[in-house]
TrEMBL record, chains A, B, C, D, E, F:
Signal peptide: none annotated. It comes from Neobacillus kokaensis. Homohexamer. The gene is hutP. It comes from the Bacteria. Antiterminator that binds to cis-acting regulatory sequences on the mRNA in the presence of histidine, thereby suppressing transcription termination and activating the hut operon for histidine utilization. Gene3D superfamilies: Hut operon regulatory protein HutP. This is Hut operon positive regulatory protein. Keywords: Activator, Histidine metabolism, RNA-binding, Transcription, Transcription regulation. InterPro entries: Regulatory_HutP, Regulatory_HutP_bacillales, Regulatory_HutP_sf. It holds the Pfam family HutP. SUPFAM superfamilies: Hut operon positive regulatory protein HutP.
Length: 147, 147, 147, 147, 147, 147
């Protein structure tokens, strides 16, 4: 039932955000039986962050759009990742701050046991701060859920 | 006032946790004018996580133990990182879960502008789950504060 | 000072939401010295949920509109019920989700002791999910306050 | 993809708590392809609430104890239900309050679409208040998750 | 229905904490139809803060101990005041911090309208910080509720 | 490292809000080596509260507008003060409530030790309630940060 060291999907989803060439990086992950996608979104509106990630995951076939359990799993992984980014209140514009984020979604089984089935990881990395250029610091978030 | 790309301390603090040889990795960071330390802590008791990081940072001279503003900066960075790890309530044992974490603390100036002075980053990476071996998934957190 | 089993107002307020004929159901409750009202509201805007319940309670004479202590008691009962519905952040549209809710407000004394005076219960039941038909699951909330 | 009216598992899980004869009530639910269990737990220690529900669900075969994804699904449903009960901070003794709760766990597919697979509902109903007999009011919580 | 300027009970409850001679100060407030008490409590255990205030309010006859609605009103005022003190998570020792607080409880009607009846204010003022002398800064909280 | 009794900046920042003549009061504080400013803001929009305080602090030279660490320190002090005002969720209009607040910002060193450098206090006092005249009670908040 243990996590396989070479299949730590949270670590992989973060490294994907840090890579210089995410296309090539993703191609390698796909060879190891992961499905994934990446994207960028900047907004003071938390709703748009959620929408951008959901849209990318559906467009790239990471989740099946017409099966609610898959959207539900992804949604909670996104909100959990946003907790890391916002650290206290899942709010952006309403407390006068904005984010510029890269995101990745990764799907596969990180466990030894096949019965564990697919899990989904959402990673976020970028900056958070005042809506003034340069008045910002880095921020990171990771959400993991069974799917 | 912008973040210097090669001095993104949050990214560096996370990569330090992912490195195979953190001693060597830290040595390189010190050559780039960062001060840092790493450690490990596992507990159901959130208090012990905070204490382990504070102790390591003081022992390794990352912060001055007798200047409260430095402890205050570190403390808030730790709590912010714990938000990413716990995603909702900064609670572990009281909601029957436990963590096994690596942590890193990094200190330096990530900005172009010298006036920005020192900032501190606390990164956390490991697993969170039930107090049963294998019943856990990965978790990550990052807190950044001026010091 | 104990709760009277036949006067558990939280239970009654929930059953009122589940009943097929809430008008008849309310009529019976009124014979047992409860005042109450029911309604429906669907929105991505949490403000509208609060407003719909407050308006219904005032229009139906459950609270006195010109006595602030009564509005104050109702307001806190509503927010507490919304905690059960939202489970973490009292936010809907800002985290890209919507609700379709039935609500009930019930007023009376659930305790043996007459000195306990009136209490107010707000119950909520319905669905929460993505703003896409069918992408939702059930949700419930109950807030109880002295009035 | 819609919820089937006769299969609203949240509503069913709450009604199970309100029934006079939960054994008979459960037997009927099992005839409609639900798996379920009920129990009681009273404590100032939130950890014990979580443990009691997890233990009952495993003992009664509602979830497979050796498959982490099932424990993970149940755990999050429990914590979501506790949000309804605690309304703000998932804390009991640490803010000097105690609960006496009935709980139910129900598993099955509430949707028309077979692809939605199994979902799990955790319902909680009882009293919350000061650790003084009678100084308490009712409280309710519901958590629903895909499994 | 407006607040009477000379009867702003929150302001009065805070000034009571700042006064050099709280006994004399309280005596004056009692001449203006307020009931009140003050005290001190220091702890890493949030439960003890709640208990100390409840005990003082009951001992000094600010609330009737055998009427639950009065304890309920006081309890929520205390928790609201603790939000100001803790600013995020109502936790002390579990996140390795401690408080040294003065508290005041004040009861009376701050409104023009007699129908508003009695309200209760809980004010807290002191220091919060690491369990190390001097590693602390000031903190304040105010909770107001109808009773 | 202890707080100097005559330099408790949180207490001073609150008293500034209570004073009848804040201009004269501020002048005295400036003679004791504090920098400060005061203002008023009323809104259902939490973003406007944050903006009003930031603007006042920059216009009055309390913080340097082009040094991010100073804005960062002020921002977190504001959000902490808002926790005291909102007591649970840092939300106003989205939960149908509004505030009318006086604010003060104070900067200086409250500690014996010169090495502690400057700290910043943000104090808030006013009313919170429904967007209906008179349906409101007092509220207070204090945030303190190193700068």
């Amino acid at each position: 039932m243990a996590l396989r060291k070479d299949r730590c999907m949270g670590r992989l989803a973060i490294l994907l955000l840090f890579s210089d060439d995410s296309t090539e990086h993703l191609a390698k992950l796909e060879q190891s039986n992961w499905k994934g996608c990446t994207g960028k979104v900047g907004s003071m509106d938390s709703q748009k962050i959620v929408a951008a990630i959901e849209t990318a995951a559906k467009k790239n076939g990471i989740i099946q759009p017409n099966v609610y359990r898959e959207s539900h799993a992804l949604y909670h992984a996104i909100i959990e990742a946003l907790h890391g980014v916002t650290r206290g209140q899942v709010q952006l514009g309403s407390v006068l701050r904005t984010v510029g984020l890269s995101f990745a979604v990764l799907r596969g089984n990180p466990y030894d046991n096949e019965q564990e089935g697919d899990w989904i990881a959402v990673s976020l990395y970028g900056t958070i701060g005042a809506p003034v250029k340069g008045s910002e610091h880095e921020t990171i978030g990771l959400g993991i859920n069974h799917i």
